[in-house]
């Protein structure tokens, strides 16, 4: 007779395993958090609110999600952990009840030229398998349809042991790839303007080269003088055909100069490797300007921009090649895949159809699989990352979202809300950082952080239901039901910017006049053609300042002072006041503490474990040499100045003995965009998304231009900050500027002088002007989706 021990709880008693229904956080101090203690219900939708910089990201991403991922990583062997990013334990006392975290943030997808929407998801991989099985003529394995795999072949003699003897045989191999050999899978070829590479009337020794970094003073000069392929004292215009070819096109060649082995390479192949093969936005500003000036990119004549070989394009299924499939709008491609009746690949077709339907369901059906992933907005990139989770069978995991409604029209926000609720209803915990009232309204639980930003934030101001938030009296609660009213009178335009026959992407020969001297808002559902119209027809250049959604770059050594150029006048003022060189007042140059090289902390790499950062004992985290801290300006040393908040620094440099107009002007703009609380020496890596967006806006406001083009400036902004942004836009217009804003936020639409609405749908269902006029006319007509939502917003 066997006996079993039951672990079931007595009748009426709760099972011990059912008691873990909360995520408990106690003593969270990451970044600006001040010993935060909260309890979050599992299998519910929790929304985190608060002004930009209040600590939402620090709590959700840098504490809860980061610890969950760190603990999962620790379950792997140390060998595997060595290949994974090492994460330090967040600064928190207690974290209990964590589940596996799946993070869906707004980090842009890789901007590699060969990365597309198809390669960034599983869709392109499945298409390649499909064509390798069904495509006729059959040309090879799935890699024969990949534009990232080049065709190569080779052969030679190999030796191996067989039966105790050394046998020598001839072997050959062939790999059939789909990469177009002309453009190497990029779809475009570059043409270089030789006049931008050199001045033909000068010799090399006279400084003929115009390429950044290519001077005759260093190694390049030694190579050019010692290679013997041309005379460095002869003007380039007088070079023979052979000499010019050696200067421009010669392949890598080993040479010996002054007894040292070096490699000579022509200018064009060297530039292609060092500059043109990289993402243009990742280059330093002066190098980026050179590349933009010296090169033009045109569609590859061999592959027609498809990136694929002729063989890959010739293999077809039902008259469709893989290049045709990738060029189709995803919603149409999903219909085509469902129309294929091939039992031999039925599981593959089912999975591919589900993936493509997920694109449509999430509001990205207007994209194509060939779309470069680097061109997606932050909101689009986040939704692409969501696709792999929509049909997941996983339950009891924690999904973490960072403003999933960014870039969405009010009409699309309802669909996003439905997706978030579906994830919750499967039994998952959903944590969302959000500012939009429509998204906050669906929350089961709300955590409001504040009361302010930066050092004025980091505490929990409210925790509970949405109705309780409305009555709480917090900044978010007071502004939750704010509605901007339509203006009683709109400004009269001072001129017109004519756009004729705009046909970029999905635009259909659009003719439109954009009024100048007023605030113009261009709106429409996501994918309707707004960015194509504005950025494609109003290129940034003479008189135009374009502020897009591209991320600002910066390491932990970068800060608002270095990014905005504020540090330059400050350094010069310190140098002039003390009679020393300006480089001493840079923590990245001569004034850096020698122990920590100006970082303020000393990093110790512990291989597969998280590295340790210890405050430098010599400079005590101030980053400068002790001698440099002895120099003062206005009674403060450089470390004290960099520790100031923007608002304090504005007062400091605004008058008295420390008056510095050049610095005050930059600081004034930072205050105008609502960043008065930010430390001017605070590392950029600690800034939130909304803070980075406004920092970029403040920087560009200093540029001379008559037309300002802004792409969703409300991204990452709290409801209370939107009002301040509207005041800033009004000041720009009142100063004689023309402001054109691409925006979905109804408060900005209501505040506009003129609205241009594109649609009626997305992709090939959009690309047309469906309304032009004042916001009042749009509300009265209610003829478009935008009109309906704006009318509901203003109560019209």
UniProtKB/TrEMBL annotation:
- Which molecular function GO terms apply here? ATP binding; ATP hydrolysis activity; DNA binding; nuclease activity
* Keyword list, A-Z: ATP-binding, Cytoplasm, DNA damage, DNA excision, DNA repair, DNA-binding, Excision nuclease, Nucleotide-binding, Repeat
Start and end residues of each ABC transporter domain: 490-785
* Entry keyword DNA-binding: yes
Q: Which InterPro entries match?
A: ABC_transporter-like_ATP-bd, P-loop_NTPase
Question: Could you confirm whether the keyword Cell membrane appears in this record?
Answer: no
Question: Example GO biological process term?
Answer: DNA repair
| One of the record's GO cellular component terms | cytoplasm
For this entry, the protein name equals UvrABC system protein A
Q: What are the subcellular locations of this protein?
A: Cytoplasm
Mind telling me which PROSITE patterns this protein's record contains? ABC_TRANSPORTER_2 (PS50893)
One Pfam family this sequence matches? ABC_tran
Q: Which family does it belong to?
A: Belongs to the ABC transporter superfamily. UvrA family.
Q: Which domain of life is it from?
A: Bacteria
């Amino acid at each position: 007779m066997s006996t079993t021990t039951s672990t079931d709880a007595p009748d009426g008693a709760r099972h011990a395993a059912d008691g873990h229904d909360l995520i408990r956080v106690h003593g969270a101090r990451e970044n600006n958090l001040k010993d935060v203690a909260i309890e979050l219900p599992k299998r519910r939708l929790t929304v985190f609110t608060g002004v930009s910089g209040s600590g939402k990201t620090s709590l959700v991403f840098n504490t809860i999600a980061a610890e969950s991922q760190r603990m999962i990583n620790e379950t792997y062997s140390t060998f595997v952990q060595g290949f994974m990013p090492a994460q330090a334990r967040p600064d928190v006392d207690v974290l209990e009840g964590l589940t596996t975290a799946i993070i869906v943030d707004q980090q842009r997808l890789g901007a590699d030229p060969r990365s597309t929407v198809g390669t960034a998801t599983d869709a392109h991989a499945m298409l390649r398998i499909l064509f390798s099985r069904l495509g006729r003529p059959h040309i090879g394995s799935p890699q024969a349809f990949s534009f990232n795999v080049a065709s190569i072949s080779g052969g030679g003699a190999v030796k191996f042991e067989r039966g105790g003897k050394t046998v020598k045989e001839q072997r050959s191999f062939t790999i059939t790839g789909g990469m177009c050999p002309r453009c190497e899978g990029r779809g475009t070829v570059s043409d270089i303007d030789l006049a931008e590479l050199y001045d033909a009337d000068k010799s090399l020794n006279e400084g003929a080269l115009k390429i950044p970094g290519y001077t005759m003073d260093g190694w390049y000069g030694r190579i050019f003088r010692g290679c013997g392929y041309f005379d460095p004292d002869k003007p380039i215009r007088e070079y023979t055909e052979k000499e010019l070819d050696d200067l421009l096109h010669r392949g890598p060649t080993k040479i010996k100069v002054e007894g040292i082995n070096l490699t000579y390479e022509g200018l064009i192949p060297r530039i292609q490797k060092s500059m043109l093969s990289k993402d243009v936005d990742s280059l330093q500003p002066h190098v980026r300007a050179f590349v933009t000036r010296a090169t033009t990119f045109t569609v590859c004549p061999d592959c027609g921009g498809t990136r694929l070989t002729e063989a890959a394009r010739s293999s077809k299924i039902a008259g469709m090649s893989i290049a045709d499939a990738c060029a189709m709008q995803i919603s149409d491609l999903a219909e085509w895949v469902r129309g294929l009746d091939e039992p031999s690949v039925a599981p593959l077709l089912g999975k591919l159809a589900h993936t493509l339907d997920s694109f449509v369901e999430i509001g990205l059906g207007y994209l194509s699989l060939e779309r470069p992933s680097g061109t997606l907005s932050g909101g689009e990139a986040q939704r692409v990352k969501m696709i792999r989770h929509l049909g997941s069978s996983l339950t009891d995991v924690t999904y973490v979202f960072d403003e999933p409604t960014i870039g969405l029209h009010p009409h699309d926000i309802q669909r996003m809300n439905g997706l978030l609720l579906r994830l919750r209803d499967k039994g998952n915990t959903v944590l969302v950082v959000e500012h939009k009232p429509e998204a906050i309204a669906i929350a089961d639980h709300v955590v409001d952080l504040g009361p302010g930003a930066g050092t004025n934030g980091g505490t929990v101001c409210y925790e509970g239901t949405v109705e309780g938030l409305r009555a709480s009296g917090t900044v978010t609660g007071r502004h939750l039901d704010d509605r901007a009213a339509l203006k009683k009178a709109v400004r009269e335009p001072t001129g017109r910017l004519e756009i004729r026959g705009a046909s970029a992407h999905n635009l259909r020969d659009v003719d439109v006049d954009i009024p100048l001297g007023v605030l113009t808002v261009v709106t429409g559902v996501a994918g309707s053609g707004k960015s194509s119209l504005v950025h494609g027809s109003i290129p940034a250049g003479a008189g135009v300042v374009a502020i897009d959604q591209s991320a600002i770059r910066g390491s932990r050594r970068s800060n608002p002072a270095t990014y905005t150029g504020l540090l330059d006048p400050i350094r010069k003022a310190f140098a002039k006041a003390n009679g020393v060189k300006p480089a001493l007042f840079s923590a990245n140059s001569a004034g850096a503490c020698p122990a920590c090289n100006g970082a303020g902390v000393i990093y110790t790499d512990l291989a597969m474990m998280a590295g340790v950062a210890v405050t430098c004992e010599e400079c005590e985290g101030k980053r400068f040499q002790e001698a440099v801290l002895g120099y003062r300006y206005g009674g403060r040393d450089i470390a004290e100045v960099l520790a100031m908040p923007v608002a304090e620094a504005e007062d400091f440099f605004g008058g008295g003995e420390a008056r510095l107009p050049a610095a005050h002007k930059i600081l004034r703009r930072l205050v105008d965009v609502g960043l008065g609380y930010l430390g001017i020496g605070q590392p950029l890596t600690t800034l939130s998304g909304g803070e980075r967006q406004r920092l970029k806006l403040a920087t560009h406001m200093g540029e001379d231009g008559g037309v300002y083009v802004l792409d969703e400036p409300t991204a990452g902004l709290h409801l209370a900050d939107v009002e301040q942004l509207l005041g800033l836009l009004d000041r720009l217009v009142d100063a004689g500027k023309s402001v054109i804003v691409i925006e979905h936020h109804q408060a900005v639409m209501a505040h506009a002088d003129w609205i241009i609405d594109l649609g009626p749908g997305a992709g090939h269902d959009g690309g047309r002007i469906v309304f032009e006029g004042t916001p009042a006319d749009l509300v009265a007509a209610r003829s478009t989706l935008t009109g309906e939502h704006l009318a509901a917003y203003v109560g019209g």
